[in-house]
Amino acid sequence: MELILWRHAEAEPHDPERDLQRALTPKGMRHAARMGAWLDRKLPNDCRVLVSPATRCIQTVDALGRRYKIVEELGPESTAEAIIAAAGWPEHRQPVLVVGHQPLLGQVASLVLCGGKQDWRIRKAAVFWIEHKESDGVPYIRLVAGPDVIGKLR
User: Fold this and answer.
1) Cis before residue 13, ω within 30 degrees of 0?
2) What is the pLDDT of residues 80-95, one digit of tens each?
3) Residues 91, 96, 101, 107, CA torsion sign
4) What is the second-level CATH architecture of the domain 2-10+19-150?
5) Domain ranges of the chain
6) Which string of b and e fits 96-129 if b means at least 16 CB within 10 Å?
7) Rounded distance, CA 114 to CA 104, Å?
8) pTM, two decimal places
9) What is the pLDDT of residues 50-67, one digit of tens each?
């Protein structure tokens, strides 16, 4: 199974009273478009796309141009364990792209790779791609890259 974690792009300043409604900045829109175009070329056709209900995450995934499912368990108040369960890691047969928030996505990455929850930092609009093959049973990092690097990859 492949688990692709995509942190939302840069959003308006934090406002606790309207956190879920925060929109992407113009820079965030550019970074989401760059990463979305690259991901659309690289993701398997059968990849499931799950997204947090936050506006900034929905705007980020819209740049991908694929169908997606809004999943409440991916919201900013969730847990790494809930995100892993929603993704079906590692048993699900199809790859999954999860569009969400920090520090949750960093905690998901550390939990599936190391067995413990740590606050690994994933930059805004960056992707952390993890793969798990049943044959060896050990997950590994396939790619970690931000929109600045993706623009240079083909």
Assistant:
1) no
2) 999 999 999 999 989 9
3) positive
4) 3-Layer(aba) Sandwich (3.40)
5) 2-10+19-150
6) bbbbbbbbbbbbbbbbbbeeebeebebbbbbbbb
7) 15
8) 0.95
9) 999 999 999 999 999 999
